[in-house]
Design a protein that fits this description.
Elements (H helix, E strand, L loop, with lengths): L1 H26 L6 H21 L1 E4 L6 E4 L1 H4 L5 H6 L2 H22 L3 H32 L4 H12 L1 H13 L1 H4 L5 H16 L10 H17 L6 H21 L22 H16 L1 H7 L3 H12 L1 H19 L15 H25 L1 H4 L18 H11 L1
Antiparallel strand pairs: 1-2
Helix pairs in contact: 1-15, 2-5, 2-14, 2-15, 2-16, 5-11, 5-13, 6-7, 6-8, 6-16, 7-16, 10-11, 11-13, 12-13, 16-17
Length: 410
């Protein structure tokens, strides 16, 4: 009897989920380009899972202090993991596409630049206030409780590390009107020359920080080219994918660039902080693959369950991005009371650590879910009355829809 009751409840829950997914699918405008949301969702998930897999908080011997380490330092042959989960270029590609399209649409409606920019930046920075407030209080409490400064510094640095991305993204968003027609080859040329000066001619290391803007301008302006309709043919995706992959392989094999596409503690050169030419060419390959996947994703997003999952993730994208490191640290610090546990507090220097880390991922997800429940209101705002349209289903027109509208106007 108990088993049949449980089965009935599960069946009812599954029907409820399918019914909710069907409702989300039904209220989504037919002209929305769902591939844009799918690519953004995959980019966010890539960053989150990447950080959870390659960020270790190692406990000091016998103490409660924590410091960062990476399995990529001890097991460099695992570098291909970073090729899968370092997806920031795709996020900047989608961001550039959405921003340039949104600005063009706002200008056509008569919306001022200031109004458009305030709307865009408020979506980015409203969730930041909660993160800064919590970690200001947490840092003070940790110091007052006697936690050593190095541990507090490690935790705060990890918690606030996502903010560098938001600052760069916000800066590029602010200059979007100047980037509407900028060809991606211009920022790519800047990255190339900076690396030539830095690595080829012995230039100062600080010069590399020029690439913090120039490097991410490349995928962002590719997004603008997408808006202009210049990347619709599969040929563009194949050129970016093959050309970017070949250039990255050559830079790693013959120019001495690191194979890892994320920063590795203790490494002499990082491909990400600041971005190097190898990171940018790798991003080109990723963007090419993303462009090639648009049509398959559009077809996949016609499945109500798949679309509902992507839509809901996009609705909380910034909350997930900003709090995933806090979820990792909260789990690690809480579990420290049980001793130095493998996959959490031990050195990531063998495959046993990696297997244990995979087993911890569900707990990280549970902690992130708690963070999401507590802080999503800062991104989504108060719950809206039933029937009102949510941000998650506002229109992203597909190329075919734009063509149809143009023909109708004609």
């Amino acid at each position: 009897m108990a088993e049949s009751t449980t089965a009935a409840r599960l069946k009812g829950a599954w029907k409820g989920i399918r019914r909710g997914a069907a409702q989300v699918d039904a209220v989504t405008p037919a002209e929305r380009d769902r591939a844009v949301d799918a690519l953004r969702a995959f980019a966010i998930l890539g960053v989150v899972l990447g950080h959870w897999l390659v960020t270790a908080l190692v406990a000091d011997g016998g103490g409660t202090g924590l410091r960062t380490a990476s399995p990529l330092h001890y097991l460099p042959w695992l570098s291909p993991i970073s090729w899968v989960f370092q997806t920031l270029a795709v996020f900047f590609l989608v961001g550039g596409h959405v921003a340039t399209r949104g600005y063009t649409s706002a200008r056509e409606r008569g919306t001022s630049y200031g109004q458009w920019l305030r709307s865009r930046l408020s979506r980015l920075f409203k969730p930041v206030a909660a993160v800064l407030t919590l970690w200001t209080v947490a840092s003070a409490l940790l110091l007052l409780s006697g936690t050593d400064m190095d541990t507090v510094h490690t935790l705060v640095k990890l918690a606030l590390s996502p903010l560098w991305f938001l600052l760069v993204f916000a800066a590029l968003t602010a200059v979007t009107p100047l980037l509407l027609r900028l060809h991606p080859l211009w920022p790519l040329a800047v990255v190339l020359h900076v690396d030539l000066l830095r690595f080829g001619l012995g230039g100062p290391d600080w010069l590399g920080w020029v690439n913090l803007a120039a490097g991410w301008l490349v995928p962002y302006t590719l997004g603008a080219a997408w808006t202009r309709g210049e990347l619709e043919r599969p040929r563009a995706g194949w050129i970016l994918l093959t050309g970017g992959a070949a250039a990255t392989a050559a830079l790693i094999a013959w120019a001495g660039y690191p194979a890892s596409m994320v920063g590795v503690p203790g490494a002499g050169v990082s491909n990400l902080n600041p971005p190097t030419l190898a990171a940018v060419t790798f991003g080109l390959a990723q963007c090419g693959l993303a462009l090639l996947l648009r049509e398959p994703l559009r077809r996949a997003m016609r499945i109500p369950l798949a679309w509902a999952a992507v839509a809901l993730l996009n609705l909380s994208a910034m909350t997930i991005f900003l709090w995933h490191q806090t979820a990792l640290m909260a789990t690690t610090a809480t579990a420290l009371t049980a001793g130095h546990l493998p996959g959490l507090h031990t050195f990531p220097d063998n495959l046993t650590w990696l297997a244990a880390r995979l087993a911890w991922l569900p707990l990280f997800m549970a902690a992130l879910t708690l963070c999401w429940a507590a802080f999503r209101i800062y991104e989504q705002g108060p719950r809206r009355p039933r029937g009102r349209e949510s941000r998650v289903i506002r229109t992203h027109p597909t190329p075919n829809t734009r063509e149809t509208k143009a023909r109708n106007h004609a």
